[in-house]
Amino acid sequence: MWNSWILVAGLALLCTSSAMQVDYDANAMIIDGERKLIFSGAIHYPRSTPEMWPDLIKKAKDGGLNAIETYIFWNAHEPRPRQYNFSGNLDFIKFFKLVHEAGLYGILRIGPYVCAEWNYGGFPVWLHNIDGIELRTNNEIYKKEMQIFTTKIVEMCKEANLFAPQGGPIILSQIENEYGNIMDKYKEKGKEYVKWCAEMAVAQNVGVPWIMCQQGDAPQPMINTCNGFYCDQFKPNNQKSPKMFTENWTGWFKKWGQKDPYRTAEDLAYSVARFFQLGGVLINYYMYHGGTNFGRTSGGPYITTSYDYNAPLDEYGNLNQPKWGHLKQLHEALRVGEKFLTNGTSETKDSGDGIQLTTFTDGQTGERFCFLSNTNNNKDVNVDLKDDGMHFVPAWSVSILGACKKEIYNSAKVNTQTSVMVKKQIGDEDKSAQFNWTWTLEPMRDTLEGKGTFSANTLLEQKRASDDLSDYLWYMTSVDINGTSFNEGTIFANSSGQVVHAYVNGRLIGTKSGYSFQFRNPVSLVPGRNNITLLSVTVGLQNYGDHFDLGPEGVTGPVGLIDVGNKTIDLSSNAWNYKVGLNGEAKKLYDPNSPNLQLWRTSEELPIGRPMTWYKTAFKAPSGTDPVVLDLMGMGKGHAWINGNSIGRFWPSQIADNNGCTDECDYRGAYKEQKCLSNCGNPSQRWYHVPRSFITSGTNFLVLFEEIGGDPSEVSFQTVTTGSICANANEGSLLELSCHGGNVISKIEFASYGNPKGRCGSLTKGSCEAEGSLSALEKICVGKESCTVDVSEKTFGSADCGEDKKSLAVEALCENQMVYLRELKKKKNQS
């Protein structure tokens, strides 16, 4: 059991009439005396909107979760020292209250370092700029700031009665995050820091257990936990601690210039089933809903604005099928055995060749519950369990056996639909006719002439110089050529990323991007003074690794000139002028209520391909309730706003290379982020989520800042909806088909009960089939938003397939209900 003195201390402070006691042992979380398994999912409140939260939470609960987890994002809440923001989509108190109202538990991961592919790992950059500070180590300045923020979050939760002993939803809290992965780099100071973190956390008296993920030496009473793609072999450092999988990565994040990662539903389910087979107590999906990196929140560098993460709920909040449904069925199967997994004893027998049978037995009744796994990555097997029957177990799969006899779930047998999501054009198909654009050039006369707001006789690191108030930092200097021309020279500048635009005497001479690079370009200078301006652009600050906070950003130098005689003029120690941000940002050109409306202009011919240009247009709200996306094909790189709300950075000119993608994805074998890639040869991100709450019923405004040159005439709004659904379901199962979002099943394109072949989009009949397959399915499903099909001869009639086990393959179209009813009425009138 968890150290009782800590629990008592917490309860003494927090106890209310509706208090829940949270405890644990090696086999269960124990909540008010009930032994439970925890199925949790990560939903980060700032990666969605408050209007989206209820729906996301409901879909998580419908998917079989009983808990929601989130990080707390320090830099979002405290952008300046002691200046806090907990409004809008940063209102984590409201978020947890909604979790509670839904009847779910909450898991609070304070960190306050979070990683999370979030800008600077969640640290506010002002922290980095405190003299004498060292982050994530035994440094008194850092520890003081960390404790102040941690205490503030805890006190806010207490005031809102969010901890379980107060009757709230939060049953677990986390301090630090994956520190064990890099702790050795901090040596003894790292060990001292971990010990301090534990003591500081316990002293908060929250009344619920504390966890430390990826921390093998976590001090007691911390529960150390596991993160990764697989955690079945993980063992806690205390035999009394429950086995927790705090981050099961449902996919992977994406960077600009990279392809789309994809993790199959079969492999994800396999990792979960194996975890519980070998004594797991808590699973948390990272992510259950990934969402969107609004504003400048994406880290990396180079993390895309989309944080879809191939999660069970996609970026827009739609069900990602079959992953959502396949996991839902897994959770249902595990709940059948919950009393065995949390109370009974277990025995695992290894039969060789990757076959393992784990039997959980109720000590009082003798009842059993079994997992039968095949960890071989290419060999299917038939396993003879004697009195418990013969069981077919595909390679890389786990079967869950009720009473150790009947298969109630197999991780490789997907009996849920695949939803094919499509994007539908809004309004006129001629994109150029949709919008009347106004535009203005970014005012740059001051910076091109070398006029800044502060100066130094050195090259300043960008985080220190800009305090991360903007992606943009101007470096300006001048050089005197002493009355002679400099026609065939070279300018060079070393940068630690991520983009540099170079101007000489007011003219753009070149651009380069990368993680760490040297900009190098031919240059011609004039006799006398020459102005050199370098615009350094960050694309998300580093968020992971030991001492990542010390990684330099911006123009790090040297910066210099090389003349035709190969003589170098070093400009690194020149007098440099600096300016943070764009003038357009300062003038709030992204805000339709900005007082600088006179700057916008119109012209018969829309300027395209111009760097450093702002574009603005008005638009009407798209009808319906389907999620809205902005298609920015044709644009280069920049930032987008809807009615003053940032929807994030865009960079559709970053194209993924043509190699490494495949139409077929073999789920078998250990997953890595480079497995099963897609989207080769296309923009890393073309579509950008526009939450419905950002759009009003009247006139709306879209503002784009284009940094490198693009064509806004190609821009359009689209909606995301279910275009078609398909499924393969085994005989004896119940198949649920649904179009969701107010759409109905308008047509059955294909249906065959027997031994159909192929996959979604290319289904064909096999050698045997029930003749009434199509008509039976049409009768059950057409015209409905969802339907449930009993996959059996009772539904479809006889199919003479010999000894082969029969299955159903189906493909159906989805259509807006109003459109479907209108077309149906039209057909009836015509007949």
Automatic annotation (TrEMBL):
A biological-process GO annotation: carbohydrate metabolic process
Coiled-coil ranges (or none): none
Molecular function in Gene Ontology: beta-galactosidase activity; carbohydrate binding
Source organism: Theobroma cacao
Family the entry assigns: Belongs to the glycosyl hydrolase 35 family.
Location in the cell: Secreted, Extracellular space, Apoplast
Reaction(s) the record says it catalyses: Hydrolysis of terminal non-reducing beta-D-galactose residues in beta-D-galactosides
Name the UniProt record assigns to this protein: Beta-galactosidase
Principal location class: secreted
Cellular component GO terms, alphabetical: apoplast
E.C. numbers: 3.2.1.23
Signal peptide positions (record): 1-19
Top-level EC class as recorded in UniProt: hydrolase
Span of domain SUEL-type lectin: 729-815
Matching InterPro entries: BetaGal_gal-bd, Galactose-bd-like_sf, GH, GHD, Gly_Hdrlase_35_cat, Glyco_hydro_35_CS, Glycoside_Hdrlase_35, Lectin_gal-bd_dom
Gene: LOC18606881
Keywords recorded for this protein, A-Z: Apoplast, Glycoprotein, Glycosidase, Hydrolase, Secreted, Signal
